[in-house]
Amino acid sequence: MYGWIWRHLPGNAWVRALISLALVVAVVYVLFNYVFPWAEPLLPFNDVTVDNQ
Amino acid sequence: MRVVVRTVSELCITVGTVIVLFVVYVLFWTGVKADHVMDDQIDRLQEQWAQGAVRPTAAAPGGESGGEAGAPESAPSPGPYSTDKPFAIMYIPRLGFTWNKPVLEGTATKTLKKGLGHYANTAQLGQKGNFSVAGHRRTYGDPFKDFPRLRPGDAVVLTDGTTWFTYRIDKGPYKTLPTDIEVIDAVPRKSGYTREGRYLTLTTCDPEWGHSHRLIVWAHLDSTQPVEAGKPEALRR
Prior knowledge:
The complex is a heterodimer of chains A (53) and B (237). Chain A is built from two helices and no strands. With 53 residues, chain A is an all-alpha fold. Chain A starts with a helix and ends in a 14-residue tail after the last helix. Chain B is of the alpha+beta class. Chain B has one domain: Beta Barrel (Sortase, Chain: A). Chain B has helices spanning 2-50, 109-112, and strands spanning 86-91, 100-105, 116-118, 129-134, 155-159, 163-176, 198-206, 213-226. Chain A binds chain B through residues 1-3, 28, 31-32, 36, 39-41, 43-53, and chain B through 6-7, 10-11, 18, 21-22, 25-26, 29-30, 107-109, 112, 117, 119, 134-140, 144, 176, 178-181, 183-184, 203-205, 209-211, 214, 216. Chain A: This is DUF4175 domain-containing protein.
């Protein structure tokens, strides 16, 4: 999978490394800003009330 | 065959990494975010109070030009709090001398990310009835992490910008079930109070990382003083 991505990136090794880094940062950003905030309320830490709101 | 094995192992490593990142997010990043947001809410409140827009009552026409602060109307009933907006700051010396959190209206999940949440259908601050507040035990800044250390006699101090309200804890921490909604009744049965009064209830989850139970403390309004009179006894050191 990662090998396939690596082979399909343009440029020489340095450019590919840079693009990979950018991709990793983008994925982490999306996870922290969209995926995790969505998933976190599914965990029990938000249940602090007694009327289940 | 080799490609399949490699892809599967790569996927496993990826999932593992995402899980680790998620743990970092829950344990650490929500706290960073919440601290920032709560400071922001407190700043906004203090700014509001500094501008004199203390009671956003429907009838208040902005700055009263009279400016005679010496004549407080007798126990003015505050207007309804607006949902998801901060209206008070809570101080609990037992949880730390610098412990202070904004109190927002409502107990929706998104509200509790920004501070403590006031149960919308309970009494208002300092009024007759049961002023009830919920807060996170863990994650989002861990506001009620040390909840079990609260003891009868401890002070819970709140301010709405004009008045300091000092509540004293009478009972708790009391462990109950999440469905036990009568703990936030005007006169909670298990609290030992027998007649109507100005009470305060705090709720959070128990165990620390779970949701099977709730921890409750009850307090009564011990004293009030205008902000001009300075900080109440309980906050002085």
